[in-house]
Amino acid sequence: MELTALRLLLLPLLLAAPLAAAETVLGAYIFHRHGDRTTKSYKPVSLTALGAEQVFASGTYYRNRYVASDAQTRIQGIAPDVAVLSQLSVTSPVDDVLQHSAQVFLQGLYPPAGAASVQTLANGSRTEPPLGGYVYVPVNAVSTAASSGGSENSEWLQGGSGCANAVVSSNNYFASREYLDTLASTKDFYHGLLPVVNSTFSDSQATFKNAYTIFDYVHVSTIHNQTIPAADLLTNETLHQLQTRADQHEWGLAYNSSEPVRAIAGAVLAGQILQALNDTLRAPVASATAQRLTIQFGAYAAFMSFFGLANATAASPDFYGIVDYASNFVLELVTNATTPSSGALDPADASVRFLFVNGTVGDNNPPRVYPLFGRSDALIPWSDFAAEMGRFAIADTASWCRACGNSTGVCATALGNDGGDSGNSSAAGTSSTSHKGSGGMSRAVAGVVGAMVTLAVVLGLEALVLAVGGLRLVKKGNVAGKQASSPVGPSVTQA
């Protein structure tokens, strides 16, 4: 009886207590790797049927997570059936594999709308779009001074970055003690694989220097080739060694804590993420046309560079590796506050969550939440997130040009070097940048340095091509939960 009386006394207090507001997803940024593709050793590289299936499954998963009318974590205000193009931003480098992956992903995100796409005309007749109400969402191709097309045909990590200082920094890896020691210690391992790869790689090319392209060649073969020469050599231990050495090689090229410019792909990506989420946060919550979902397709190098800069490796050592095909990460912009009926949400009420999935996402392989920036808390207040990203993000062309040491072409305009009063201080010397290591210099010095760097890079690359038959330094990855069997402004297009 006493317990019953206590419950009756507490009941009014429980009813009076306000219920915690359910979390609202205001927007999201998805960065996605392409699906399975053919080997880089033979051109052109193309998306396979398996790769299309992987990215379609991913698009379907995110439809069920963010877009469908019955999605449990539906992005507030996003159109569920027929896409409102102003709500979406979808970009990909000028590359067949990445462009095709983005297009197939969108087929899963917004499948044919059926009855929802039927329109009634003024005369009362009903019209149905072709292909069952196919939803046309454009994939905006990106190609600027910071990138070149065909990144999936490139065998070298910085081959398409256009960033002179990043090229020099990545090449510094080949003079590092880690690289030289590994090159020597793995000589017998790679030489022992010649019976498997000698149709494509010569004896001199079968070394750690080509760790990625050798891995890529073997990896693709194990997926698609029913017969492989000397297949008995490809034991689980050997395949694991190939993967591990490729991870080591590509990480060394993609990120170095003492040379931030090496991770230019991740810095640019960070700037794009910050700008997109900020645009969503500043838009009226009730707006039916505000950007809600940003999707970008890019290659594995951008994943690795961003993971290094954002210190994702503090959350899991798996982030050091190359992400698998169709891997992706998401940054969700969320709030637990009651959203206003008009105007924008107070930024103090918003937070960001980072999720990552290695390989094809699905109910059996859902994205997992990880903390960033070496923090322990996975849900980051917006102000903290913006400050942390701002430490390394590059969000405009001028900052990119200064960090890269580029001073011609687009950079001449961005830095004010395309004419005018040459007696004044140059933009490179007077403007600040969020990227470290890009200190100011006079316009004349910047031009000389840029020219010398470019000449050195060209001569260095030419020598390497003559000696090796093509640099083989870029690649795609696998992180958190690796499966061993197995880059807008300046754009992120590293292969």
UniProtKB/TrEMBL annotation:
Keywords: Membrane, Signal, Transmembrane, Transmembrane helix. Residues 420-439 are annotated as: Disordered. Residues 1-22 form the signal peptide. It holds the Pfam family His_Phos_2. Gene3D superfamilies: Phosphoglycerate mutase-like. The chain crosses the membrane at residues 444-468. It comes from the Eukaryota. Residues 423-436 have a biased composition (Low complexity). Belongs to the histidine acid phosphatase family. This is Histidine acid phosphatase. It comes from Phialemonium thermophilum.
